[in-house]
Amino acid sequence: MIAYVIRRVFQSFVVLLVVGLVAFSMFRFVGDPIDNMLGQERTQADVERLRTTLGLDQPFPVQYAKFLANAAQGNFGVSYRQGRPVATIISERAPATLELALVSGTLALVVGIGLGVFTAIRRNGVASNVIMTTSLIGVSLPTFLIGILLIYVFSVSLGWLPSFGRGETTQIGGWSTGFLTASGLKALILPSITLGLYQMTLIMRLVRSEMLEVLRQDYIRFARARGLRERSVNFRHALKNTMVPVITVVGLQLGAIIAFAIITETVFQWPGVGLLFINAIQFVDIPVMAAYLMLISVMFVGINLIVDLLYFAIDPRLRIDGRHA
Amino acid sequence: MLRLTTVSALAMAIAMPAAAAEFRWAGTTDPQTMDPHAVNSAPVLGFLNNVYEGLVRRGKDMAIEPALATSWEPIGDGEGWRFTLREGVTFHDGSAFTAEDVIFSYQRASSEEADTSSWFAPVSDVKMVDDFTVDVLTNAPNPIFPDSIANWMIMDSGWAAANGAERPAKDAENHATLNTNGTAAFKLVERQPGLKTVLEPFDGWWGTPEHNVTRAEFTPIQNPATAVAALLSGDVDMINPVPIQDAGRMAAAGNAKVIQGIEARVIMLGFPHQADELKYTSDAGKPNPFKDVRVRQAVAHAVNVPAILQTIMRGNAEPASQLVSPAMRGYSESLSRRPDFDPDKARALLAEAGYGDGFSFGLKCPNDRYLNDEAVCQAVTGMLAQVGITAELDAMPVQNYWPELREDNYDMYLLGWSPGTFDAEHPIRFLATTPNEEKKLGSWNFGDFSNERVDTLLPLMQSEIDDAKRQAYIDEATKILQDEVAYVPLYVQPLVWGTGANIELTQRPDNFFILRWVTVN
Fold first, then answer.
1. Is B101 helix (H, G, I), strand (E, B) or coil?
2. A101, A119, A212, A297 from A199: Cα distances, Å
3. Nearest in space to B238 (alpha carbons), one of B498, B43, B512
4. A84 within a domain of the structure (yes/no)
5. Is the separation of the CB atoms in A93 and A271 below 8 Å?
6. Which site in A134, B11, B287, B461 is 20 to 30 Å from B42, CA atoms measured?
7. Residue whose C-alpha is closest to residue B432's, from B496, B390, B486
8. For B384-437, how does the pLDDT look when each residue is reduced to its tens digit (9 = 90+)?
9. Fold of B264-494
């Protein structure tokens, strides 16, 4: 067990280092930050001086090593664009992304499971067929199109909801929350639908097919034969047994929601880390890009590690293999 | 920093009628910093013009007018300028404005850490004569110095010292990055970088307010479609810019209007004047045809500028004949005719130069720097093909573009230039003078255009006090640049802003948004 865990942690660590190395080797293709940092009246001497100050004249492995050495001490450098510490900027922006991810994740989970169960039970009903057909839209339409569509319907035409931003936020310690104001809650609606729609349809389809599978099992027939109530059969017996694969997928999708909120955040001008990253790319703000990419890979590697360890705990076959390996 | 709580936000919403004088506006770029000397870029200087003031400022027509200085006059025989300062001016924190703040702001803005130091290259010293008189001494007579410092903003010396912000910070944060203490009509009450920046009128301002704004909030919105939607749904009162293709639809919507003008930026094609060989396409390695002035003339005649403006700019831009637009000081009226669109003449010129069978070359172009830049390059490519020369277009994001130009990786390129001083001397200094690192000349002259007479004319026009003589020098240089086809000026880029139907404002050609000219009806 311990050997397995140590091996997995070590592998995760190597993955992180490689991600960082690839990221740093790519940065010079993103462009040159110097031109963005200096005005049009700069001289070549100014350019060279700033390049040396920032260490951009050095080869990328050296830049990467410096980044790692500083990051190990918790110092992610100073943003080229804002001239402020990257750690501060990211911690200012993280609440926006996490709140959006939480709301859209919950939405996807609740609505997805509900509709999945419904369409499985009423397999041939008209409503089920309508839902199944509509869900294709969620899978096939690109996020930005859904976002723009929602904005035009609910903000421009109907004027019900704000077209961009987070509304008024309340500061609680280091955390800015939009949950406590009316405008903050209203502002959450459109972006969380946009962000969660894909996951919602994914979960719904997954629950439906798992549920159909389970409903054919003998123990369900047996439960019905025992005269148990329909609700009890569907939810206590059938749904419970569909949840194992669903939870695995949901766990991984939560990571995806946080990491790929970029497009939703851009469309809604949602001030989270995804928008920060897009700005960083446009400005070639290397410290912000590096910190963001490392953060996201830490998150994914972490989720994968936890899932692996959970499998190990759940699945006895893995344990036996592990002992022999 | 003041943070709005829910309660006060609701209170404001209730207290104000529909025609509230609260104003919200959006732009693509968040100002990088609130420090007026740290970054010399239009988004920063434009925004901070509402918070800080200079000795002089630009009016609605771009003319220089008194601000913190009430008058100025040349000293002796062009040794410099004497500024008489306005008395009774206070900074936002209540401290008094004196000559000491001017001296301090000169030292700060011209320091090595500042990005604005090039403005003070002609200055040898700034001296305090008394509390309200300052002498700026220049190395040589400098007639346009007052014109060149409209964006040099005065910061309170006491405030800066008390907060450890005596020098601008480029790769670190200091107090002035997020806080301000200026003298202008609006003061900064909240700054959340990338999120929102809130201004409120300064009660102690020396001037008479023309606006009725009680609170102004700026939000950066990068996505143009989101910005248009925000304006149409009334979430913001003004956006800059409006995508050209959306302007017509927006004007028709009824609750918004489009404000159009001509920006100071001239878009042009540039050539390699010194390179011996072509670098791209199958003709790479062959002699560089653009060294021949007839080929450059042929390009000028081959590009149908009116057609570009009609289709790509939807009639919003004006053709350009020289490196500055007609609104700039020093524009050469007598040279306002640009080469006619004449493909036959272009073909004849090419044949005469020995390229009757045409050639192919690489055209470099940014795709996110100027309005519809890539589309313009595609149109140019098509028009050049009509006269037999084949351009291979390579369009890229601007942060990749400048390094390519610096390393001479092009056979032809697209460039836009907006003169910071609003004077014709500016592009000649940066684009047309032989590059000279030491004298800080020709730093954007990527193609190394070099003409001895232009190099001689530059210092003459820089130091000539007599307007007529100075114009003669500029005209002569402009004529040379036109005859030599150093660049092919195409058009002056349009400015397209969108506002709510109830907003009155003034659009200035430098694309600066001046809040004190806003009226909310």
1. helix
2. 11, 17, 20, 20
3. B498
4. no
5. yes
6. B461
7. B486
8. 999 999 999 999 988 889 889 988 999 999 999 988 888 999 999 999 999 988
9. Dipeptide-binding Protein; domain 3 (3.10.105)
Q: What is the CATH number of domain B35-176?
A: 3.90.76.10
Q: Which of B149, B222, B236 to mutate to test the interface with A (most CBs of A within 10 A)?
A: B222
**Any residues with CB less than 8 A from the CB of B479 and at least 6 apart, and which?**
B332, B335
The domain of A98 spans: 92-270
B489 close to B266: Cβ distance less than 8 angstroms: yes
Number of domains in chain A: 1
Distances (CA, A) of B517 to B18, B185, B259: 20, 11, 14
- Helix B244-252 vs helix B224-232: crossing angle, to nearest 10: 10
In tens, the pLDDT along B212-254 reads 999 999 999 988 889 999 999 999 999 988 988 888 888 888 8
* Amino acid (1-letter code) at residue B152: W
Measured in angstroms, the CA of A33 and the nearest CA of chain B are apart by 7
CB atoms within 10 A of CB A118: 18
- CA separation, residue A107 to residues A176, A196, A247, A273 (Å): 21, 7, 15, 21
Sign of the Cα pseudo-torsion (B84, B509, B47, B502, in order): positive
CATH value at residue A184? 1.10.3720.10
pLDDT (0 to 100) of residue B12:
43
Beta bridge partners of B409: none
Instruction: Please state the domain extents for chain B.
Output: 35-176, 264-494
Positive/negative CA dihedral, A39, A44, A49, A50: positive
Domain assignment present for residue A70? The answer is no
Q: How many residues does chain A have?
A: 325
Sheet containing B123-130, strands listed edge to edge, beginning at the edge strand earlier in sequence: B69-75, B80-85, B133-138, B123-130
- Hey, what are B130's tokens? 């008394």
d(CA B265, CA B426) in angstroms, rounded, equals 12
Structure tokens belonging to residue B275: 């390179």
Whole-angstrom distance, CA of residue B179 vs CA of residue B202: 15
Query: Which among A152, A204, A170, A162 has a CA at the least distance from the CA of A186?
Result: A162
**What is the percentage of chain B residues whose pLDDT exceeds 90?**
68
Cis peptide bond upstream of B201, omega within 30: no
CA distance B478 to B462: 15
- Reduced to 3 states, what is the DSSP secondary structure of residue B509? coil
pLDDT of amino acid B6: 42
Residue B390 one-letter amino acid? T
Q: Assess contact for B504 and B249: CB atoms under 8 A.
A: no
Measured between CB atoms, does A276 come within 8 Å of chain B? yes
Closest CA to B137 of B172, B110, B157: B110
Name the range with the highest mean pLDDT among A203-207, A244-248, B295-299.
Answer: B295-299
Chain A contacts of B33, Cβ < 8 Å? 82-83
**For residue A121, what are its two tokens?**
């039970």
Q: Point out the residue among B223, B233, B399 whose CB comes nearest to the CB of A32.
A: B399
In a mutational test of the B interface, the residue from A27, A40, A52 whose CB has the highest number of chain B CBs within 10 Å is A40
Neighbours of B194 (CB within 10 A): 20
> What is the distance between the alpha carbons of residues A7 and B465, in angstroms, rounded to a whole number?
78
Q: How many CB pairs under 8 A join A and B?
A: 152
The predicted structure's pLDDT at residue B42: 85
Rounded Cα distance, B384 and B362, in Å:
12
Which residues contact residue B21 at a Cβ distance below 8 angstroms, ignoring those fewer than 6 apart? B212, B213, B214, B215, B520
Closest C-alpha to A37, from A80, A68, A72: A80
Name the minimum distance, in Å, from the CA of A15 to any CA of chain B: 29
Interface confidence, given as ipTM, is 0.82
Phi, psi of A139, rounded to the nearest 5 degrees = -75, -35
Question: In chain A, what residues touch B399 (CB-CB under 8 Å)?
Answer: 30-33, 35-36, 282-284
